[in-house]
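JOB MANIFEST
job_type = single_chain_structure
chain_count = 1
residues = 297
[input]
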Amino acid sequence: MVSKKLQSSSHRNSGRSSWTSAASRVLLVVAVIVCGLSVPPGVVFAKAPLGKQWPASQQVSMNDVDHSPFDRLLRKHVDRDGYVDYTAWKASSADRAALREYLNSLSRASTRGGTTDARLAFWINAYNAVTIEGILQEYPTSSIRNHTAKLFGYNIWDDLPLFVGGQQFSLNQIEHEILRKMNEPRIHFAIVCASVGCPRLLSEAYTIERVRDQLAINARDFFSRPQNLKADTRNRRLHMSSILSWFGEDFGSSQSARLKYLTPYLPTAAQKLAADPGVDVSFLEYDWSLNDQAKKR
């Protein structure tokens, strides 16, 4: 654990991604092409985009996207702790096809219009569905970090885009360019990077009608789990998930502001510490192992 103030951070080299790594990888590929260097066999730089390109005349509002097919898949393959039965999901040709068809339906959505709650539910579901599809393409695997090359090769966060409204959006773009700009920091307790250290993957899809309640439920669940929060009342210290270090700026401009925002979602003991102006905050080591039901048993 690293002890520090709960602060904002734009550095993601130890987090979910790195903006600089994406640019560096592009430069490396250019260098390979220009210099005529050989690419090691089996190295993949990008996967085919998910979904498909719908003409503007056939696109629909995000208000009208049906998330029930994704809901059925999540209820079937995800348990109450957010662990996924990747083995069964990958073995089912019908469920693999159903996920791809759901991604096709997301592609039909227009990027214009739609209520705020419709866009929140849409992009959270899109992020989680693309992540699951990406893991299923690689499974069996032990961690998403096995598929996040920083320089040479495929990075799931940059190189598995989804068509939406005729444009391609990577996981990084969905997270940083869309969701984080919606001023709803609880998205960090909803989008899931297929890891034990992530918030749990809900065993249901986010919906327009319930997305705000679902975000609150998952925020409370997140802090109820010891891998995400430990309250040390004797030493006046909160040990919190690294997510609160990587994305601290999204929760407020100061430690006190962030803790005030988070307080309603914390257990009682942690709430009392959060109100203590002298509380020390440290960040827990992130568990990147796959949220796989097979490993949980």
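[summary]
Residues 56-227 form one domain.
The chain has twelve helices and six strands.
exit_status = 0
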